[in-house]
Amino acid sequence: MKTKLRTTYLLTVLFFLFVTVGSMILFYNMFSEEFIIANNKKIMNSVFEDAQGMDLSSLTKSDRKRLKEFSDKGGLIAIYDGEKIIYFSGDTPERKRNIKRRRFDEKIYEYTYTPKANVSEGRTAIRLKGKIDQNVKTYYVYCSVKLRTLENSIGLISRFMLVEMIIILILGIPFSFYMAQRTVKPIEKLGKIAKEMENNKPIDFEEYNFPNNEIGHLADQIKSMYLKISSNINELNNYNYLLKTQNKELVEFDERRKKFIGMATHELKTPLAIISTQLEMMNMDNDEAMSEYYESIMEEIQKMSNLIREMLNSSFEGDLILSGPMNVGNLSELLNSMKDKYKGLFGSKNVVCKFDIEDNIYINMNSEQIEQAINNYIINAYEHIDIKGTATVTLKSKGDKAVISVYNNGSNIAEEEINNIWDGFYQTGERIKESNVGLGLYIVRNIVKNHNGICYAKNHSNGVEFIMEFNRTDKY
């Protein structure tokens, strides 16, 4: 059973939301307490460092404001000068007296010049106890934060995050469904267009609205492709009509040719009969009248020759040999322009295709025909090369010749077949069952012959090399 893209998208988004928020809650519950404790320790140490830079005998308004920032976050600060508490952030005088008695008078020995904030025994609070010498006087600084306050804050935040996760999931379901609809609907439209293209139906793209994003860009590309295909189909239909018309004319011409040959053959019977009869008479009577028979024979032979000539002219009347125009061209540039196309083709088969092209080699050529011949050589190598093999295309000058070579590693061609592969519709034994009809090398031979060149193949120990040679010419 196929899963719809909309359902997959919706489930994916919901799963992402659930995992993300759930992970945040789990992570917070596991590590938040230690993180908050470490953060409060850092703040306490910073407060003590700030106190070291203050004039504790006369705290300014700015100093008190800085100390109050810590108490506003739930902490308590008390500064003792050995006689009385000169600064206290607590809320009641009773608590101040309790702090003086329990934290200073009874445990003054616990204060150090290099204190560090630590969690108390029983994990009830974070405390820092330090002392500072200023103006021949020692001041004692006490900082404290109750862990119960922190735990209450952590529990409150955890509950808030749980409620937040529920809200996100509740809001995320309709939002995810909306986004799934918004994403999938244009894709469904593209599928409908593709189905209409498959059924060769006319498509009005104005009926479809696509967003201005990658899907819209894809729709524009499909539209462009559809228009090109429609144009090509129309052109093919035109060519098909012309071919049908020409084929009809060829059929009519062939019928006329057959009729003419039949009539001409019939007409040949009479002079041939006369020749036969007169030759018999020559054999029977060898006298002066022979000269007359000879003249009659020659006259009938001439008639027969004329008829045969007319038959041949008529038979070959439709045999037109078309040859494109030839100009001096740069064979090196032609081969260089073909490199990228074939490197990509061979790359799809994990095959390395190398090009070794000598510069500035010119021949008198029809560039389209030469490109077709080279293409057939390279495609032939591609079809026969081993996977992860190597093909090499070279162009070299040898004397007054331009030599193109296409080598591929793979199986050799049987020696009894190496001369037959150039024939039309010929296939080697290993490829008889394939769809290739065996015209590639036949076309190469005709193109090379039309350019006054030669082509041949050579077997090597680990592959086959196909070669074509042409007469070089000057640039101008």
Automatic annotation (TrEMBL):
EC primary class: transferase
Major subcellular location class: membrane
EC number of this enzyme: 2.7.13.3
GO CC annotations on file: plasma membrane
Record carries keyword Transmembrane helix: yes
Domain Histidine kinase: 263-474
Keyword Disulfide bond: no
Any one GO molecular function term: phosphorelay sensor kinase activity
Transmembrane intervals: 9-31, 156-180
Reaction catalysis annotation: ATP + protein L-histidine = ADP + protein N-phospho-L-histidine
Subcellular localization: Cell membrane
Keyword terms, alphabetized: ATP-binding, Cell membrane, Kinase, Membrane, Nucleotide-binding, Phosphoprotein, Transferase, Transmembrane, Transmembrane helix, Two-component regulatory system
SMART domains for this protein: HATPase_c (SM00387), HisKA (SM00388)
Membrane topology per record: Multi-pass membrane protein
Protein name: histidine kinase
Originating organism: Eubacterium ventriosum
